[in-house]
């Protein structure tokens, strides 16, 4: 049987490698957000610096593995087989759960995941032990088997991290902006030395007391020396770094970028050093357990269901080669993971200075919080002196904002985010407050973006909804990890080796399927080059070229979709295919949401082009886009009566009606496709002909409407289907009006500007 458990160890190592990949993919946002968001350096440079930090942090980590051995349960009360079920269940659950969050692009905490998986799995096994009537010496309740205090500490850490980080993020960023303003490059000589000194000192303090506290070279003597001479060391570091930063500024070096890159290195090293246990700690504990069982229990003839695992209370001794290997895998995952970029984009978009691609909708809670916030600000403004308000408004003049091309926020905010996050985590560690790295870095970024006026009235409700969603995901992680790990460990315990193999295989299957699905999705979601330019470029001419092209793509897509849907729903109604009619209604709703999103992007683009050009083109843009939206509304009014009629099993559309309307249906679809082709190519030479065709068709459909109205007075036996047919005629007439308005607006909007194609982009 011991050979089976050695096979399990092999499986656990495979999962540990996977866990390192998915874990780094999620936690990379902690140390990459600020540098990438501010464009402090090229992505390759940022990744290189972070990779060095990760490798050093992982290779020097040692003391955190004990939490997986005895941090959540009392191992002396558990048999070998029971703990192997716990270890395997935790690993299986962790990789699947973190992969789900990565696929959704949602940052979560790997620490919370591991802690609650350990707690959930050991809780389930403990219930089984108690219910089976196992007599254990010194055990009177569940509290004697589990370390529930650690779980409460983690939950407290969530609340503390959210509140403290968000509050100080607001305060420190607000003060920093008052000092530097948005035109931060002006008057730096008098400020940058001291700011750089404070920043570097804070970062090094964080590295010494958090990032490297568990490093192998941090012996008790070294730690004692640091604790006894903390103030003296910090004073020396401050003086030296202040002089150095002032000198670098004199040499025309951007000190903010230096601070950001140092902070990125520090956070990456701390992440690897302290969170490595989240990925390999359980596997190392399982390996030690199997080796110990094979060396001690097997020769003594003690079975897996009889041997107690009290030896896990001993400190962990992790081989340096395992640490180096883990560091190498983490570096590889950092540089290659596409899902890491999804998580990173979520965090950056929630904190970007301007209105960008809002990933979240609005929620009632967000709307209430926005109203409450606006009320609070109004109250503060009423009691504030006018001179103070004028001075603050002058310091917060966003028209002076200096952003690098494509940056979500400036270097000042990025520096504040990194320095403050590191300082809070270090202080929390020294004060024994359970502050989470993930939660602190994220909430500092959210607080600083709020203080920096990044959450305007047009975007605040979306940003707050996003923040609430992420925070909710943290608690969801804890609950899901606890429940899933408990279920999986129970199945493994009762099912034995067969169940262990099946559950491990199922996890691998889910991961492979997730990878394939994600890859297919990315292949389908072709990167919109034009949209990237519209949202990120600072060149007005480049934005206009991309904006006109993107508008053409949007309108063509809508017109092509409308033509297909119009033709499809009429055919489905004729065949009494209620399923296709229901599907059509659902897809129309999705199309409306997509068009609304595209219109928002394009409206943002108008703010980035020449004001005179924007004034000239705005009217025609809104004429086209508003009518495109009305086309979708009209399709809803056509499809819904058809769906209800068919769903109620009323009489179908008569062959007479079908034959009568078929020519108009065909020609209307042709008009839609013709106008779409005109917009796509930018060649409006056929525009007048298409407009005339639409006008003639409107007249003919009007005549058909009068005929059908007379029929309603004569044929009362088939009145329900007659009304549906009349509605189709009426709404088809409206469709023609709307599509002709789209064509008219496009002629004026594009003018001499021929939109480029996707291939050219």
What key phrases describe this protein's structure?
single chain; 761 residues; mainly alpha; Methane Monooxygenase Hydroxylase, Chain G, domain 1; 2 domains; 25 helices
Q: What's the gist of this structure?
A:
This protein has 761 residues and is an all-alpha fold. It has 25 helices and no strands. Helices cover 77% and strands 0% of the residues.
H and E string: HHHHHHHHHHHHHHHHHHHHHHHHH
Mean pLDDT: 83
Molecular shape = globular
Number of strands: 0
Strand percentage, roughly?
under 5%
Q: Span from first to last CA?
A: 61 Å
Helix content: over 70%
* Radius of gyration using CA atoms only: 32 Å
Count of alpha and pi helical runs: 25
Q: Which stretches are low in confidence, meaning pLDDT under 50 for 5 or more residues running? A: 753-761
Derived structural class = mainly alpha
Number of domains: 2
What does the main sheet amount to? none
Overview of this structure, please?
The chain is mostly helical and 761 residues long. The protein has 2 domains: 2-137 and 157-383 and 409-518, no CATH class; 529-750, Methane Monooxygenase Hydroxylase, Chain G, domain 1, CATH 1.20.58. It is built from 25 helices and no strands. Helix 2 packs across helix 13 and helix 6 (110-131) packs across helix 18. It is globular. The relative contact order is 0.11.
Write the SSE topology.
Elements: H1 2-27, H2 29-37, H3 43-59, H4 66-71, H5 80-104, H6 110-131, H7 148-180, H8 192-211, H9 220-228, H10 230-250, H11 255-297, H12 320-336, H13 338-351, H14 364-383, H15 386-395, H16 411-430, H17 437-451, H18 460-524, H19 529-536, H20 540-574, H21 578-606, H22 611-647, H23 655-681, H24 687-714, H25 719-750
Helix pairs in contact: 1-5, 1-11, 1-12, 1-13, 2-3, 2-11, 2-13, 2-16, 2-17, 3-11, 3-12, 5-6, 5-11, 5-18, 6-7, 6-18, 7-16, 7-17, 8-10, 8-11, 8-16, 11-16, 14-18, 16-17, 19-20, 20-21, 20-22, 20-23, 20-25, 21-22, 22-25, 23-24, 23-25, 24-25
